[in-house]
Amino acid sequence: IADGVILSAGSSVPFVTWALERADGGAGGRPFRRVVQVYAKADDDERAAVDRFRRQLALTLRGEHHRRNLELAGSTLDQAALRTIAGREDWGALPAGLTDAVVRRHAAVGTSADVRDRLAAYGKAGIDEVVLGGLYDPDETRETLRAVTA
Question: What count of other Cβ atoms lies within 10 Å of the Cβ of residue 34?
Answer without folding.
Answer: 20
